[in-house]
Every structure is written in C-alpha cells, then in structure tokens.
Amino acid sequence: MFKKILIANRGEIALRIIRTCREMGIPTVAVYSTADRDSLHVRFADEAVCIGPPSSKDSYLNIPNIISAAEITGVDAIHPGYGFLSENSSFSQICKDYNIKFIGSPPDIIEMMGDKSTAKETVRKAGVPTVPGSDGLLEDLNHAKRVASDIGYPVMIKATAGGGGKGMRIIWKAEDLDAVWDTARAEAMAAFGNDGMYMEKYIQNPRHIEIQVVGDQYGHVSHLSERECSIQRRHQKLVEECPSPVVTPELREKMTQAAVAAATSIKYEGAGTIEFLLDDDGSFYFMEMNTRIQVEHPVTEEVFFYDLIKEQIKVAAGVPVSGNPYYPKDRYAMEVRINAEDPFNGFRPSPGKITELFTPGGHGVRIDSHAYAGYVIPPYYDSMIGKLIVSAFSREEVIDKMIRALDEFIIEGVKTTIPFHQKLMRDVRFRRGEFSTRFLETFKF
Ligand code: MV4
C-alpha cells in the first residue's frame, strides 16, 4: 500500500479523499493556494504545502509546483480528485516520470478518451452502440453536408477536443450548416487549439445515464450500475440519482455490459464513468468516458455501500477488483449540489462569507462539504460548497427525505441553490421521474 498520498485538489473532494486515507491509515499531504489557507483540507491533512497564488493556473494547475510539493514531502502517490489536473495527460505522464503513482488514468488512456471522435471509434469497435454519424472527423463543409444528408437532419456537430457541451452545434437543415461550420470550428480552435469536428444524428430528448466502472491492473472491470444525471443546467449537473427511474433490469443489463465491454477493450484501470444518451425508444448510445472520480460518486456509494475512493486507491496499489458488487434491490440515493449561486438571478455566483451554517442530519442523510460557519468562499474556483446526499428504500421516500433535509439547512451570508432544489423536489413531473436533459429549459423557477 502507499506510504503517503498527496491530494492535488481542494474543497469537498480533497476532504473526501483525506477521510478515506485516514481510515486506511495512509498519511496525506494537502496542497493549497494562498486563497485556501483557512480551508479544511489544509487542516485535516497530515501535512500541507502552499503551491501558489489564488489563480488556478498558478496553483492547482501548476504542475511544477505540485511535483515539487510531492518531492519535498516524499509521497508515493497523487490523487487528483475531479477537475483541475485529473484528466491532464501530461500530468499523468510527469507523475510516471517521477515514479509517483497517479491515482487516475495512464496518459495514453486520458489522451484517447479526451479525443471524443477517437473515443467513439474505439468503443464502437468493442461493440458499444454509438450515435449514427461521421466515421471519424469531418474533412470539410462538403463532407459535412454529405454525411448530414445521409443520416438525415437534425444533426449535431461536435468538437473532438470538446466534451461537456463545449464546441457543439445543432443543425436543423442544410442551409444552417453553412452558417455554423466556420464559427464552430473557430470556436473549437480558440478553446482547445484543435478544430477537428465530427457529426452525429441529433437525439432530441435524451436522458443522461452513466455507468460507474472500476478496472484493475489485471484486465478485470467491474461495474456499479447507473446514475441518472439528466437534471442539468448549461451542462452543469444539479441533481443525480441511483438507480435511474426509467432503467429496467433488462436495460440495466445491456447498458452495464456495454460499459464493461468498452472499459475492458481499453484495459481500463481505476474508477471511470461511461456516459450514455438514452433515447425515448430505449436505445442508448455512448457519449463519452470520464477517466476520473466524479462529483456524483456518492449516490453510487450509498446504494452499494461501497467506498469508491478506497477502491481507487486499492486498484492503484495493485489490488484486484472482486467482481461486480452485489446490487441491492430497493435501495435508492439522490444527490443535490449546493452551490453558492443565486437561483433567482440566473444562478449568478455568490461568493463571500458563510456567516451561519447548520447542516441537516438524521437517518439516511449525508453531507460532503468543506464549508463551516465563518468560511469565506473564494471567487476563484467553482461555486459548489457541498453535496447533500439522501438514501432510502424508494425514490418517493428519498424525495420526501430530501425535502425534509433541505428545509433543515441553514446557510446565511451567501445565496445558494437550496431554494431551487426545494421547488424541484415538489415538482409533479420530477416526482414522477418524467424528465429529459431538457427539463430545466422549461422548469419555471
Ligand atoms: C448529444 C445530444 C443529442 N444528440 N449528442 C452534451 C454534452 C456532451 N457530452 C454531449 N451532449 C449532448 N450530445 C447527440 N447526438 C445532446 C447533448 C446534450 C446533453 C447531453 C447530456 C446531458 C445534458 C445535455 C444537454 C444538452 C445537450
């Protein structure tokens, strides 16, 4: 097992990783920017090293400073959490060069999955369903038009270096393609330094369903079923649940087997997520693969009673995965993201001092948060201040418990997404599980 782990992250996920390391008896090193001096991850880690000024690019994205901190403290592994350097292939490579285990994916896997068109072709060859579209990249506008008329409008063009919705366009008819082709490519070039585009049939009202997988160093991949993540606003998830209210046992079997086939075909090691679009007619298609632990991992943990961070550390240390964890029937979990944002004003960030804080508790209630009364939310990073995760024996019970927990929450000093969740949990269509990724476009708040 590792002798000491550096956590190259901040906020709730840094704390989440430190907690598991503590339980495993592994000493930890926190890194922090000058804006995070008073953060709990700094206090709860065994050692802490300042890695730079507030700006992410000078601190949490500063590879030389993080590697220096790792060398000075003598760690043998780095956990990158999510965001920041978690899917940075150079960082993964540099860790390898320094003989430090990167608790994430090897550089070649990050690179392959980071190029969305290559990722799609790779999993398609493993027998995973993909959305009909171009074979690889589009050569030029004429090629794009030919593919579009073959598959039929509406279509979507996507930046191969994109993901998470960046560099994407919907095209309803041939004329519109002329109008967006150049601007979409220019946007992709400016954002990613890569203007490669591919095309797909546009799926009009999909659900976002993702499968959690864990692979070991011996080619074995296990899965932990699905998470339903359709409740999103501008590609930011706000609510996640396990299981999905629309996934039947038969569909679950097909989707989990497809995800395991995809991950096995690339000898995937570590925790990962295969994202699918689920169409109204029950067809599902590979969207992308995330080669990191995800924000919403706790809903899976609560349903399976399984510590995904512990599993990440174990497989990174060479422990084999032991088959698919037992799927508990009649267990249900839901997570809502508590962001320091004003839902009454377009979810505008609301950084500042949390003057008062009371967090809900009781049966089936879990809070993953780095917030405390007196904590000042810095304006430099994402606005998530915590996650409220509730579990029970049915979706109805979970929603009722979620309402109870949200109603107990007291956060003063900053605006939060709590009122949004209070309204959503009482919405009839949400309660019936009737929603797609477009639900929030029409949800009146
Ligand atoms: C799509 C799609 C419809 N059809 N692809 C958005 C993020 C990126 N990972 C892929 N995305 C989509 N790809 C086809 N062929 C609709 C989306 C999409 C979406 C997907 C999941 C969750 C929320 C979404 C919101 C808008 C669009």
Summarize the structure in short:
The protein is α+β, with helices and mostly antiparallel strands and 445 residues long. 34% of the residues lie in helices and 26% in strands.
Describe this structure as you would to a colleague:
This protein has 445 residues and is α+β, with helices and mostly antiparallel strands. It folds into three domains: 5-103, 3-Layer(aba) Sandwich (Rossmann fold), CATH 3.40.50.20; 132-201, 2-Layer Sandwich (Dna Ligase, domain 1); 207-441, ATP-grasp fold, B domain (D-amino Acid Aminotransferase, Chain A, domain 1), CATH 3.30.470.20. The protein has helices spanning 11-24, 40-44, 63-73, 89-97, 107-114, 116-125, 141-151, 174-192, 249-265, 297-304, 308-316, 395-408, 418-425, 428-432, 439-442; strands at residues 5-7, 28-33, 47-52, 77-79, 101-102, 155-163, 166-171, 197-201, 207-215, 221-228, 232-233, 236-237, 239-242, 270-278, 284-290, 332-339, 341-342, 348-349, 352-353, 356-358, 365-369, 376-377, 384-392, 410-412. It has a five-stranded parallel β-sheet with strand order 3-2-1-4-5. The protein has a four-stranded antiparallel β-sheet with strand order 10-9-14-15, sandwiched between helices. A four-stranded antiparallel β-sheet has the order 13-16-23-21. It is globular, with a radius of gyration of 22 Å. Ligand MV4 binds next to strand 6, strand 8 and strand 15.
